[in-house]
Design goal:
Number of domains: 2
Shape: globular
Helix content: 40-55%
Strand content: 15-25%
Number of strands: 11
CATH topology of the largest domain: D-Maltodextrin-Binding Protein, domain 2
Structural class: alpha/beta
Distance between the termini: 71 Å
Number of helices: 12
CATH architecture of the largest domain: 3-Layer(aba) Sandwich
CATH class of the largest domain: Alpha Beta
CATH superfamily of the largest domain: Bordetella uptake gene, domain 1
Order of helices and strands: HHEHEHEHEEHEHEHEEHEHHEH
Length: 328
């Protein structure tokens, strides 16, 4: 009888452990989502993480049967929105759409309210893109070389816009400033939208921003695109040269956007979100929309995105030191 009882207890314990494991691996994903999903964006509407999140949100809502809402929380180079998600319940219902600014934050801010590597779980990269160097139509420059010549002839007199201190747009311009040895001043804005308004108006002389944020401003002649920052031209703006071929050999800066969840989100939920978002990114109409914006869909595995973020933090840290940018 003792043996029978021991066997029964062993079987019961194994059954409980098996059920718990099944629940950990299967039930959270099968029950998810059971309420609206919130995608936090640490920048104002109109920026690349915002545009990407909105493109995904409509189709994701259709696929999972729950509303998907965008929550813009701009400020401090995206760190306000990142903190919200780092501290959110790790159940998959609060996500973060980030740009490469996420990997820039440790190089710019001496103290962050979260650990950029450890407090988030990658879901997938969503797109990759160049930045475009744009100037007001009223500025009498027609090329990258023209702008560099003007800046060198007027040290300290030209200003460049950014979407905020520590943003990708700030860092790209600082890299240009350092690479070309320019004496130009930084004017930070609270998002890409306000920065574009002042660039069009001529209150700042140049701005480096993702093509996705430009709408028809270049095509309508309100801004002039001088060059793109990547190793090759952007499909949507094939007539705009790279900055490297247009006057600054070796210059390169590329951006990416991706989706993150809080670090302790169950892997089953992370994998489910990855499958759904990856399927959306592979839809022809989504690809066409991204290409029109000057970007390319870039689905990845969660592990690949985690690896990208870690490597970018290291790479950007090295670039920051070379550009003389120190954490504040």
């Amino acid at each position: 009888m003792h043996r029978a009882l021991s066997s029964l207890l062993a079987i019961t314990a194994a059954s409980i452990a098996s059920a718990a494991l099944a629940g950990e691996r299967g039930e959270p994903a099968s029950a998810f989502p059971n309420r609206p999903i919130r995608i936090v964006v640490g920048f104002t509407p109109g920026g690349q993480p915002d545009i990407t999140a909105r493109a995904i949100s409509v189709k994701l809502a259709e696929r999972v049967g729950q509303p998907v809402v965008i929550d813009n929380r701009p400020g401090a180079g995206g760190t306000i929105g990142s903190r919200i998600v780092a501290e959110a319940a790790p159940d998959g219902h609060t996500l973060l759409s980030v740009s490469s600014a996420h990997a820039i934050q440790p190089a710019v801010y001496a103290k962050l309210p979260y650990d950029t590597r450890r407090d988030f779980a990658g879901i997938t990269t969503t797109l990759t893109a160049n930045y475009m160097l744009v100037v007001p139509a009223s500025l009498p420059v027609k090329s990258v070389q023209d702008l560099l010549t003007m800046a060198r002839a007027k040290p300290g007199q030209l200003n460049f816009a950014s979407a905020g201190s520590g943003s990708g747009t700030h860092f790209a311009a600082e890299l240009l400033k350092s690479s070309a040895q320019l004496d130009v001043a930084h004017v930070p804005y609270k998002g890409i939208g306000p920065a574009l308004i002042d660039t069009v108006a001529g209150r700042v002389q140049f701005f480096l921003t993702p093509p996705a944020t430009l709408g028809t401003l270049v095509k309508d002649g309100k801004l002039r695109g001088l060059g793109v920052t990547g190793a090759k031209r952007t499909r949507a703006y094939s007539d705009v040269p790279t900055i490297a071929e247009a006057g600054l050999p070796g210059f390169r800066w590329e951006t990416w956007v991706g989706m993150l969840a809080p670090a302790k989100t169950p892997r089953a939920i992370v994998q489910k979100l990855n499958r759904e978002i990856t399927a959306i990114l592979r839809m022809p109409d989504v690809e066409s929309r991204f290409v029109e914006m000057g970007a390319e869909p870039a689905p990845s595995t969660p592990a690949e995105f985690d690896k990208l973020v870690a490597s970018e933090i290291t790479r950007v840290g090295e670039l920051a030191r070379k550009a003389g940018i120190t954490p504040q």
